[in-house]
Design goal:
single chain; about 110 residues; Factor Xa Inhibitor; 2 domains; 5 helices; elongated; Ribosomal_bL35_sf; 50S ribosomal protein L35; ribonucleoprotein; ribosomal protein; Ribosomal_bL35-like
Length: about 110
């Protein structure tokens, strides 16, 4: 099938035909590896669970399996804040609360 597609495209090129995607719609077939990959990923069966990327960028799992987060209030408007306060805001903090931690684990798939 691929050779017939190649022959048809080479004949179109030699004739100077303008390209149109509709000419190739009947020839496009997904590869067998793609079809098996779709079933492995769950698109053919169970729904695919995806990581929430915004949460994955904000939260990390520590070595002791707790989830850490960054503190707010250090990115701008720090001119009136004391140096000790800004340094304390730089340190990461754990997520306190079992239910909130479980919710974050589901979001980041940890």
């Amino acid at each position: 099938m691929f050779t017939s597609l190649l022959r048809s495209t080479s004949s179109l090129i030699s004739r100077g035909t303008s390209w149109n995607i509709s000419m190739f719609k009947t020839h496009i077939m997904p590869s067998p590896s793609l079809l098996t990959n779709i079933t492995e990923r769950g698109l053919a069966g169970k729904a695919l669970l995806r990581t929430n990327k915004s949460a994955a960028k904000r939260f990390r799992v520590r070595g002791n399996a707790r989830i850490k987060r960054n503190k707010a209030g250090r990115s701008h408007n720090t001119g009136h804040k004391g140096r000790k306060r800004i340094n304390n805001l730089a340190a990461s903090a754990p997520i306190n609360g079992k239910k909130i931690e479980d919710r974050m684990r589901r979001l980041i798939r940890a």
